[in-house]
């Protein structure tokens, strides 16, 4: 049973990561901001390999920031 719930979480995180990447691509922000957001998404993707639940929480925070228009400073 736990394996099934882990698989469902993995599928949900994968779908949300795909959505997040699409949203970042479509943002009308300076390139430095887009690059910073892309790096955050790559870090979350890498973290998902070792800590799926933690990666899901990080992705939730990032998506909330995007929803509320809070963007990081660009390089």
From TrEMBL:
Recorded superkingdom: Bacteria
Protein name: Uncharacterized protein
Organism encoding this protein: Streptomyces ficellus
